[in-house]
Amino acid sequence: MQQPQPQPQLPSIALEASANSIFEDFLKSGTHGAQWPNRTWCVVQVNNGRPEVFRNEGGTHAELYLLQYLRKQCNTQCLGNVRVYISYSPCSQCSEALIEFKTNVRNLDMEIIAAAPYNCYRISCPVCEKGYFDKNNYEEFSENTRMLHMLSQNGINVRAFEYDLWVTLANLLNMARPDTEQIELYTDESETYNNSYVGDFEGHNYQHTRKQADDFAATDFNNIFSANFKMPDHPDWYIEQNVNVGDLLDDMDRLNLDDNAF
């Protein structure tokens, strides 16, 4: 008899974080000028029910905790509508796992709203547009991008945030974490959505709003999910050695690329 596979346990840190701190991580993910969190948050709502919150920990990605939860839900209800809010888009392996799950669950309508594309080809970035990848990460970027495209091809819609979706996420987090610091919702969207993050990195100043980050992400996702998308091959100026950030920014200067477009 085949033994059941061990399931990852919900990370304790996800249970302890406040609604407000999780929301801040979402806002900063992919926004230049902000310090990008090195953690991925995932908020899921099934059939408009109570939201659940997951986070990567100990090498286990947030999407795997999500899938564990969804498999359990299959035992008690028809999943129907599943909406996932995630701070970084899935890697290639998580995308593959999501596709497998979708294939095995009938009548599943799944949508993923991502705050930022994770390590994939981005035409919104002038450096990526010119194929600026070192030899150690091109394959990862290529595979992540290819599997994101396959998510769409297999009926899992992935899109960027818009202001109304940020309001929805805030409400869901407040509902999921009622006993923690709550998120203040502003009637004027400019107080949160158009507030600039300003940061200095390697001598270069960045100033982006969350709205700009969402616009960039929407451009990238629309490109990746187009029917005729193809990951570009290595360009002629493909770099054979590892690239550090300082070298990358120096090359941006030589190409007259605007920091604020990055």
Average pLDDT rating: 79
Order of neighbouring strands in the sheet with most strands:
2-1-3-4-5
Envelope shape:
globular
Strand fraction equals 5-15%
- CATH-defined topology: Cytidine Deaminase, domain 2
What is the annotated CATH architecture? 3-Layer(aba) Sandwich
Distance between the termini: 54 Å
Round the Cα radius of gyration to an integer and report it: 19 Å
Structural class: alpha/beta
Which H/E pattern describes the elements? HHEEHEHEHHEHEEHH
Number of helices: 9
CATH H-level superfamily: Cytidine Deaminase, domain 2
Class, according to the CATH hierarchy? Alpha Beta
Record field, number of beta strands: 7
How does the major sheet shape up? Answer: 5 strands, mixed
Low-confidence stretches: 1-8, 235-246, 248-262
The structural domain count equals 1
Assign a percent range to the helix content. 25-40%
Description:
There is one protein chain. With 262 residues, the chain is an alpha/beta fold. It has one domain (12-261): 3-Layer(aba) Sandwich (Cytidine Deaminase, domain 2), CATH 3.40.140. It is built from nine helices and seven strands, in the order ααββαβαβααβαββαα. The protein has helices spanning 12-16, 19-28, 62-74, 92-104, 126-129, 138-153, 163-176, 210-224, 245-254, and strands at 41-46, 52-55, 81-86, 109-114, 157-160, 196-201, 204-209. The protein has a five-stranded mixed sheet. A two-stranded antiparallel ribbon has the order 6-7. Helix 4 links the parallel strand 3 (81-86) and strand 4. The radius of gyration is 19 Å and the shape is globular.
